[in-house]
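Task card 7
Instruction: Convert sequence to structure tokens.
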Amino acid sequence: MTKILLIIIACVSLPIYASWQDTVDYVGETFNVSVSKENYLNESTSDDLTYTLYGSHDFNETWRVFGQVDTDNFWEIGAGYSFIFSDFVYNEVTVTAGGNTDDVDVYSAGLFSALSLGELILFTDFSTQYIDRVLERPLSRLEVINFEKTFGGYHEMNEWLSLSLSYTHKSTLYKKLSIDTASKWGTVYGDKSYTHYVSPGVTFSLMGVKPTVSYNYYFDDNKSNSLDFTLTFDF
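Output:
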């Protein structure tokens, strides 16, 4: 959600008459710090907060690179390619690779699209994620493929206040656990599962500094509800 807000905030921060290329350039140079109860892999095993530093750099008119690192020793780097469809819809294709010190590798790819209707931005974000994780006790390997779909809107109320609302549906399409029992590997396939939640948020614009507060409400597990805070800097 943080990456989505980065692009949307940049869109609504520009005058209505600004070109899409101005929007792309504006998005390309930014970084933020976020605080969340959930870590990157959505493992809410404790009430400890996860702090994440995210940055993005625009190489040229269509390409950018970005990356993030958090206090759970997870890092990620990625590249994005943007294009405009029919002079009307902004799109960005992204690929990422990441991992942490606990033998976890994560690869993902996604497509973000945004439609500007004056002060209202409508957006979608589709992404797939492959997780390869080595577990020590007992020695085993877990492979997971997730698919995530997000639909939402972002509205600029005035020059300093904006509201957002999004709905996310996350599905686990594939789950395989390989276990080493007496040097003989066994395989267990997990059931398909899903979770979905809605995220209302509010963003303030204070001289280039944009704090955002959002609340994640899970329909199927209220214990996972969480409040996120993101502080974005544009330069």
